[in-house]
Structure formats: C-alpha cells, structure tokens
Specification:
The structure is a single chain. The protein has 443 residues and is of the alpha+beta class. The chain contains nine helices and 23 strands. It has a 23-stranded antiparallel sheet that branches. Strand 3 and strand 4 form a beta hairpin. Helix 4 runs antiparallel to helix 5. The longest helix is centred in the first third of the chain and has 30 residues. The termini are far apart.
Length: 443
C-alpha cells in the first residue's frame, strides 16, 4: 500500500511538473534566433515578448525577410497551448504591424488575406503549420501601369502548409483561382497547386543549390489579350528534383499537359523532360557566384561575352572528368501525321587537356528528331513565311539533312571524334562555320 501511495504521489508530481517542462522547452525553441536562407531570400525570426503560464503562453515575434530587392518585417502574435509532446500555436498578424517598410501592394494583400497559421511545435524544436488565407484582390498602379489601364492581382481562398526542421523544409499552397491583369493582358490559373520539399545541401544549409523535390500544376492556364486567347494549357503538371553531394549534382525537370493551344495550333499529350547528370557541384557554384559578380560589373557586350566564354571553358575543364551529361526529350501528339518526337543526349568525354585543345572531340552528342508532315504544314501556315520554310525543307532534303519516310520528316545529328554526322553524312564543315560565327571573331 505504501509503495502504491508513493507511486501515485510521483505521478501527481510528474503531472504537475510536466506542463512546466513543456513550456520551458517550447519557449527555448521559440526564443532561439532562427536564421535561414532559401534561394535568394534570407529569413531572421526573433522573439520580442514571451509570457508563459503552466498550460498556455502568449508570444510576439518579428519575421524579417530580405531578398530580391525586398527588406521588410512582419510582426506576429502567437497563442500557445501546452500539450503532452509539444505545443499547439495559433498565429496571426499583429495589430501593431508596422507596414511602413512594406510595398503598397503587399500591405493591401495582407490586409485582405488575413493569413493565419495553426502550428505544432515539438519538444525537439520542429515546426509544422497549416496555413490559410482569405480571397485577395489587389490593384496597384504606377506611371507605367496608369498608361496601360492598371494592374490587378486576384487570388482565391488559399490553403497550404509549412513544416520546418533541421532535416527538411516542406512548403505547399493551393488555391482555386489565381489571376493577373495588366492593361489588356490577363493570365489565369485555375485549380493552382504548388508544393516543394527541400533538404539542406551537403553543407547542411538551406542555401544555394539545396536538394529539393518540387511539383506545381494547374487545371487550366490561359493567357488572353484584348479578349483573345493567345496561349492556353489544360491539365498542366510540372515536377522537378535535385539531389547532390559535395562533388556532384543530379537534376531532373518534367513538364506534361493534356492540351496546348497557341493561335490556330493545337497540340495534345505534351510530355517534356530534361535531366542534368553528374554535374560538378563546386563548378556549378562557381558559375552562380560569377553570374552574381558580373551583374555588379559595368561591362560592354563584347567584354561580357568574352568573360562568360572564359568562365564556361574553365568550368568545362573542371567538369569533364566527372562525365557530365545532359539528356532531354519531347513528345507531342499521338497521331503519326502530326507527331513530334525529339531525343537529346549531350555529354563530355576525355580530360581537361582534351577540351582545352580539341573541344569538338570532347563532345558526345546525339539528337534525333521526328515530325509528321501534317504538323510541319500547320507550322508552315502559322509562320506566315511559307516560302522560306518550304525552301529550307527542300534544301534539307536535297543535302541529306532531312529524310522523308511515310509522311514523316526525320533527322539525326551526332558527334563522332569531332566530326558532325547528319543522317550518317559528314557535315563537319557546317559545325566549324557555326563555331567561328558564334565566336564573333574571338578565335
């Protein structure tokens, strides 16, 4: 009996102390200054006020966002309820929000959207949130917009999520409608959805070139001008991912659509994919940093082109040892007479000396193109310059660049030891002429 009483007393003490322990852990997690970076945006989250009781707490925080020409702060209020394994947090924009730093369109959007988040903060410090926003319709004008009749952004009711821990970041957002007007042009996205899963890069940071898995899509995308559809897509789906180590990056992009419309041209069953395999990560990071440096330089076009060419050649010499490869393809239409099929395989072979002294021999290139004659005739009609296209087609057939088989145009280009073969005929002289033309007198 005595042991039972002691056990019951310990349980009572634990039950009384546990909410205090949870409160201390959650407060510590929130008070830790949160520094992070996602792409070009940097985030700084700090606690300005925290009042804790046994089973609940109130907190005020400031989220500073810097990047892409923006630098502003959002004041947030949190109502916290302590639970067994963490805390439930209800977040709202603070009524004390200092909006002086926000662009006018941001202020208007936040006032209408009234974003809120219902979150869970675990004892280990991870945060998981459900986000919701009200419909937003914002008009903003400037000198250019006034001349064009103004611009308007419309976003329907939004639902999303955010999950952040040391191991991953997950962000998602869905809305029934997203529309942008600018003068006589409008862009509409119905049933828009977006989601991204980001893992820290090999350096352990959510910085440049992190690993990610991204997906976005829309039931319908439509671009109109003066009441006429210029471009439309049904059942648009895009996915992309990237995986890397300290030495290597692999990336993939895939785009699919049920139907694509442009002017008088209609395509069905679009499937496009592009993958970059075994790219040297330090070299790619060097490209990114060089681009940022050149953006701050005042260079004329010729000097900029020469600098870019030098950076690319130096980078390729570093990458070639890792057998980098770029692969892609596109498939449109199932009807053979209107079908388009393209397959690309491009890589580098050899070593740094080979690409520096005999760059054409380092290229491993294979391109296959198949197009139905009916699709070519449709493009011929839309181009408005049928004479030029017909002449080009006849010249290509005569010189053997294009083959005609069963109402289908076919062409295959490949590199073999520095020689360009088009439908197995040596056309290296064309490649050399193109290289010197692109060099603009640098060689």
């Amino acid at each position: 009996m005595r042991k039972i009483l002691i056990l019951c007393l310990l349980l009572v003490l634990a039950a009384a102390a546990w909410p205090i322990y949870v409160g201390v852990q959650v407060e510590t997690a929130l008070r830790d200054t949160r520094l992070g970076q996602l792409g070009d945006f940097r985030f700084h989250h700090t606690v300005t006020d925290y009042n804790r009781e046994n089973y609940r707490a109130r907190a005020s925080t400031v989220l500073n966002v810097v990047g892409d020409g923006m630098d502003f702060e959002l004041n947030l209020d949190h109502r916290i309820r302590h639970r067994l394994l963490g805390a439930a947090v209800d977040t709202r924009l603070s009524s004390r929000q200092n909006s002086a730093d926000l662009p006018p369109q941001w202020r208007a959007a936040l006032a209408q959207a009234q974003p809120r988040a219902d979150s869970w903060v675990g004892l280990g410090g991870g945060v998981s949130s459900r986000l919701s926003t009200r419909p937003v319709q914002v008009v903003w004008t400037d000198a250019g917009a006034q001349n064009q009749g103004g611009r308007l952004l419309e976003v329907g009711t939004g639902q999303g999520g955010l999950s952040l821990s040391r191991e991953r970041l997950v962000l998602s957002f869905d809305t029934e409608i997203l529309r942008l007007y600018s003068g006589g042009t409008s862009l509409l996205l119905d049933d828009f959805h977006y989601g991204v899963l980001v893992h820290p890069g090999p350096e352990g940071l959510y910085g440049r070139l992190p690993d990610y898995d991204l997906g976005l899509g829309a039931g319908r995308l439509s671009l109109h001008r003066d009441g006429r559809e210029l471009f439309g897509v049904d059942s648009l789906q895009m996915s992309a991912w990237q995986n890397s180590t300290l030495r290597q990056i692999d990336s993939l992009l895939r785009l699919r659509a049920k139907e694509v419309r442009s002017a008088d041209l209609e395509l069905e069953g679009l499937d496009l994919h592009l993958s970059a395999l075994r790219w040297h990560r330090p070299t790619v990071m060097g490209f990114v940093q060089a681009r940022e440096s050149m953006a701050a330089m005042e260079l004329d076009a010729q000097a900029r082109a020469g600098l870019i060419l030098g950076i690319v050649l130096d980078g390729l010499q570093q990458m070639i040892a890792h057998d980098p490869r770029l692969q892609g393809g596109i498939s449109v239409n199932s009807d053979p007479e209107k079908r388009l099929r393209v397959h690309l395989d491009l890589g580098l072979l050899g070593d740094a000396e080979r690409i520096a002294t005999r760059p054409l021999e380092a290229l491993d290139f294979d391109l296959d193109v198949e197009m139905g004659m009916a699709l070519f005739e449709e493009l011929d009609t839309l181009a408005g310059a049928s004479e030029v296209l017909r002449t080009w087609l006849e010249l290509g057939i005569t010189d053997g660049w294009i083959e005609v088989r069963d109402s289908e145009l076919r062409s295959r280009l490949r590199m073999d030891e520095g020689r360009l073969l088009i439908n197995e005929r040596d056309q290296t002289i064309l490649l050399l002429a193109l290289v010197f033309a692109l060099g603009q007198g640098m060689f």
